[in-house]
Amino acid sequence: MANNHGDFIWYELMTSDAAGARDFYAAVIGWDIETNSDAPKVYRMISASDGPVAGLLPLTADMLAGGAHPCWMGYITVSDVDACAAAIKDAGGSICMEPWDIEGVGRAAFVADPQGVMFYIMKPIPPADNPDAQSTSFAAETPMVGHCAWNELSTTDPHAAKAFYGALFGWVQEGDMDMGPLGKYEFWWDGAKRFMLGAVMPKMAEMPVPFWTYYFRVPDIDTACAAISAHGGTVIQEPIEIPGGDYSLVAADPQGAAFGLVGARA
Predict the structure, then answer these.
(1) The whole model's pTM is what?
(2) What is the CA radius of gyration of the chain?
(3) Which partner from 39, 110, 130, 158 sits 20 to 30 angstroms from 207, CA to CA?
(4) 148-263 is a CATH 3.30.70.890 domain
(5) Does residue 133 surpass a pLDDT of 90?
C-alpha cells in the first residue's frame, strides 16, 4: 500500500465477548461490527461510516487459558516483515508469533518491544485494482470520526523506547509537555515528519504494565463519556482539554480492554 514504513495501518480488538463489544462500541463510537453469529470465532470487521477501520478477534477459551486478555493492538506497516522481526529481536525485543502469511491480506508478525509492549508488524498486499491504496485507519492529517487519532505509548523506559522505535521505524521525537512529577509527554512524528503520530510517556505507578493506548475520534466527548458508563464500561480518566482545543479521555470497555477517545466539547 501507499503507506510508508513505520505507519500505523490497522487496529485490532481482542475480546472475550464479541457481541457485548459490538453493542458497547456502537453506542460509544458509532461503529458497526460484523455479527457473524453463526461463526463466533471468525475475525470481524469494525467499520466507521466510511468503511472498515479495525478488526475484532474473538478470544477462544484456549487463548484465554494461555494468558491472552481483552485489549487493543496496533499494526505498523514495514517494508520487510522477516527482516524487521529479526531486527526487533536483535534490539532486545521479542517475537510472540513468528512471521506468517494471511491469505489475500499480507504477511505479519506479533512482536514486543524490549519493555514488553506488544504490537503487530505487517506488509499488506494492496488490492489488485488499486495498488496505491492507503490505509486511513489512523487518520493522521485529517480528523475522521471513528478513526484512530492518536497512538500513545506508556513505558517503563521512554529513552530506550525512543531509540528502539526510532531505529526500527524512523520515528522522530520532537516537542514535549512537562507533566511535573509524572515526567515528560514527548511527541512522536513519522519518519518523513508529515504528521505527529502520537507520544511516549513514563508509565504511571498505577498502571499494571507498559502498553499502547489508541485514541479514537468521536463527535462529542461528553456524549461518548456518558455512553461508556451507561453501557458497562469504566471511565479511567475524565475528559481533559488537549492542545488544539479537543478533549481526550481514557476508558475500559466492559471486558477490560483499555482505549482512548478524542473529540470536541459542545
Answers:
(1) 0.95
(2) 18
(3) 110
(4) no
(5) no
